[in-house]
Amino acid sequence: MLLSDRNGDPFRSARVWGMFMELYITPGSPYARMARIVLIKKGLRDRVTVTPARTREANSPYYRINPSGRVPWLLRDDGTGLEESSLICDWFDQIDGAPSFGVPPGEAGWEARRLEAMARSLMDGVSVWLRESYRPENERSPGVVAHETARAGRLIEAWEREIGHPWMNGPLNMAEITLGCALGIEVRLPEFRWRPGHAKLTTWYDAIAARPSFVETAPPRPNT
Ligand SMILES: N[C@@H](CCC(=O)N[C@@H](CS)C(=O)NCC(=O)O)C(=O)O
Predict the structure, then answer these.
(1) Which of 2, 35, 61, 97 has its CA 20 to 30 A from that of 208?
(2) Domain identity same for 85 and 160
(3) Which tens digit of pLDDT belongs to each residue from 164-202?
(4) How far is it, in rounded angstroms, from Cα 224 to Cα 220?
(5) Ligand 1 within 6 A of 25 CB?
(6) What is the pTM of this model?
(7) 114-125: per-residue pLDDT in tens?
């Protein structure tokens, strides 16, 4: 079968040849955004189709593809499905045998992992808060919102102190991508007002948000 034999499905021939992968996302998901950024940075656009999935819907057809119903989810070119942003980012990073998002050995590596975990902690908490905001008003839990608001406040204070760390100010790495995507949730959740009183974090974020891979994957504003 020839690559030019498209038959209305531009990727069919290539899939048969086992060359293409499919990344399922939603445009607003910060976890999927991390995978999309690594995909772009690794020059994989031509090998990976990015497909919007219908999540949080009763009987969504997506559940037949990925039983968990979450994004990101990667259909690899060998037919295997991968769930979890960190795993998918790592897969993309290692695909060419020349990883650029690994951590250095020794103490610097522990620092890199500590910072990435702290960024992920912010993302996990603010995502729970965001999820509450998607629910009908009478189903929202004020207790959950208050807990996550307070957690985010503490973590933002900690990040204002940490953001000058050399690992957060070098070539793009997973800690930076994770923190950038976590702070970017402000677009989806206007109540997540982390900027006031955090000048260093604001300057850091505005620079990373201006990078082409961040601009291209920016989440849409609610109701757009
Ligand atoms: N730990 C997962 C989290 C993924 C996740 O929670 N994705 C959300 C979107 S931000 C989702 O798919 N939600 C749909 C649902 O819960 O049904 C990862 O890192 O990929």
Answers:
(1) 97
(2) no
(3) 999 999 999 999 999 999 999 999 999 999 999 999 999
(4) 6
(5) no
(6) 0.91
(7) 999 999 999 999
Ligand 1 centroid distance, CA of 160 (Å): 27
- Does the pLDDT of residue 9 top 70, yes or no? no
Q: Which domain holds residue 187?
A: 106-216
Q: What is the per-residue DSSP string for 137-149?
A: GGG--HHHHHHHH
Q: Which residue has the least CA distance to atom 16 on ligand 1?
A: 70
Domain count for the chain: 2
Average pLDDT of the chain, as a whole number? 92
Backbone angles phi, psi at 169, to 5 degrees: -135, 30
Last residue of a domain, one of 68, 94, 120: 94
Residue corresponding to tokens 């849409």 = 220
Q: Residue 131 falls within a domain, yes or no? A: yes
* 3-class state of residue 51 by DSSP: strand
Indicate whether residue 71 lines ligand 1 (CB < 6 A): yes
For residue 186 the two structure tokens come to 């402000």
